[in-house]
Input
Amino acid sequence: MTIAISAMRPEDWGEVRSIYLEGIATGHATFETDAPPRESWDAAHLKEARLVARDGGAVLGWAALSPVSSRCVYAGVAEVSVYVSAKARGRGVGRALLRELVAASERQGIWSLQAGVFPENRASLELHRRCGFREVGRRESLGRLGSVWRDVILLERRSPAVGTT
Output
């Protein structure tokens, strides 16, 4: 398998949505219970940092950033999403995506990345740690997924350039 990271294109949406639905089906990736329409997803994510991992023409995974707030003081803070197809998990796809997403975020002047991960999603927690994120807390019973209250581990990564300019 050869992994190539590139910008997400509008025509990738079908595969991106399918991979998102695979993540939703695990019950450990998100509070969402269905993938939104493309227009809603598009409006919720920063246009400058939307990536896909490909093997040939097939999309193996995707990563994107969402703003955490519309307040100007948070313009350099974004939330990370990384999803990998079930057939490509454990092969370095998530790491390649997240590393490139970090680099893309810094090129855009984003100084702080954050992620919220269910504690049961050990692979995602480890992926974030390997890419320079640190655990900053646990939000207990943050929300319900179905009838179950779920905790969320908060992780963040600061750009090394913070405080140097």
Observations:
- The two ends are 41 Å apart (CA to CA).
- The longest helix spans residues 93-107.
- The helical segments are 13-26, 38-44, 93-107, 122-130.
